[in-house]
Amino acid sequence: MGSPAKKSLPAMLKLQALDIVERYHVSGGIGPDAYSNAPSLHPMAEAKFMLSLVALLNAKVISQQRFVEYAAPVCLRLEASRISLFGGGAAWGLGFRYGDFSAKEPFLITSALVVEALSAALATSLLDKKVASLQKAGMRTLTSWLRHWTLAYPGTELMLPRYSEHLHDPIINAAAYAMGVVARSTDVAESETASAKEGLLLIAGLRVKGAGWPYSASSGIVDLLHQCYIINAYPTDMWPADNDWHTDLISLFDGGICYLDVCTLVTESFAPSRELPIIRKIGDYCLRVERKPARLWSLGELLLCLSRRGRLIADEPERLRWKRTADRVARHVMEQFESNSEESGFVRHAMHGLHGIVELLAFHREDAQVKGNRASHDK
């Protein structure tokens, strides 16, 4: 007997995505985190799970009935975990105690991801009116946060929102993500979307060409996860036409046998050695590239970023190049799940990985549909 036929990458992506979805659904969203071993509910993971479900529905991988079966409990859990803010608004926290912050500390990045997910779920028209009410409350928080909880970013006239209720330092990726959710919204005042887009344009000006955005004014860390958050936050029509954000991302973090996780912008330089990080000269800076493999959620967000970029490209050879790059990242993501790595058990990490897998699956299915239509037309 011959060996069984090897499954195609899209087939493997689909099987793995559906397996992850079912396991998360059965768990009720409860699990550990890289920063807390205690099993708990993670609103950020819930948001990524919901975004993945919407993408699976839109790609016709799951039915409307199955979507509602999976999505409705998520909405109930997000309602139960909401934090009241800004007089009737809703925000969300980590779901676990972190440092000096309680599990109920509202964080901007978590709240923005949840509102994005609720907005996407609402657009399916398959969920009840309570979801619309929760989404509206969340969007109210984001717009109020962007108006009232802001500080001047050091050295600029740019006003950026604080990171959480009690952590006032503006963090670039969280600010960009919140602005991106508002900028892409169709249910807030035009003045709100215009202000958010203006903020995104100013944040683009903070980028160091060839490297990316520092974590904050006080930290020169340039890590893969947060670079992808920033890029994914922007409406796609605000991405630069020359793709330099995406190509810089790949050239900076591609470590050959694996993707790297973090770099640091510094002003001093020193000779590299086996013990010290890799040093690259970037304009007026030196970039220390740490020899640390990318984490699962970093890889998942990168896969999401590359797949979204590729799906916008009309030129077939260029589109294929982006897809092949995304395929390579996907294999690293899938290896983590197939090996049952420790990170694949962290629900926030796992749901970032799922979201990237689903977006690439949609990319492949979209191209297969075009190819099939073309073949039918040529007959």
Question: What summary fits the major beta sheet?
Answer: 4 strands, antiparallel
C-alpha geometry: globular
Calculate Rg over CA atoms: 21 Å
Number of strands: 10
Work out the strand percent.
Answer: 5-15%
Mean of pLDDT: 93
Helix run count:
12
Helix-strand topology string: HEEHHEEHHEEHHEHHEEEHHH
**Low-pLDDT ranges:** none
User: How far is it from the N-terminal to the C-terminal residue, by CA?
Assistant: 36 Å
Given helix and strand content, the structural type is: alpha+beta
**Going across the major beta sheet, what is the strand order?**
7-8-10-9
Which SSEs are present, and which pair or pack?
Blueprint (H helix, E strand, L loop, with lengths): L8 H19 L2 E4 L2 E6 L1 H16 L5 H17 L2 E3 L3 E3 L16 H15 L6 H20 L1 E3 L6 E3 L10 H12 L6 H15 L16 E3 H10 L10 H10 L8 E5 L11 E5 L2 E5 L6 H16 L4 H23 L8 H32 L1
Antiparallel strand pairs: 1-2, 3-4, 5-6, 7-8, 8-10, 9-10
Helix pairs in contact: 1-12, 2-3, 2-4, 2-12, 4-5, 4-6, 5-6, 6-7, 6-8, 8-9, 8-10, 10-11, 10-12, 11-12
Task: Tell me what you see in this structure.
This protein is an alpha+beta fold and 379 residues long. The protein has a domain at 299-364. 54% of the residues lie in helices and 11% in strands. The chain has twelve helices and ten strands. The strands form four sheets. Strands 7-8-10-9 form a four-stranded antiparallel β-sheet. Strands 1-2 form a two-stranded antiparallel ribbon. The longest helix has 32 residues, at 347-378. Strand 3 (83-85) and strand 4 (89-91) form a beta hairpin. The chain has helices spanning 9-27, 43-58, 64-80, 108-122, 129-148, 172-183, 190-204, 224-233, 244-253, 296-311, 316-338, 347-378, and strands at 30-33, 36-41, 83-85, 89-91, 150-152, 159-161, 221-223, 262-266, 278-282, 285-289.
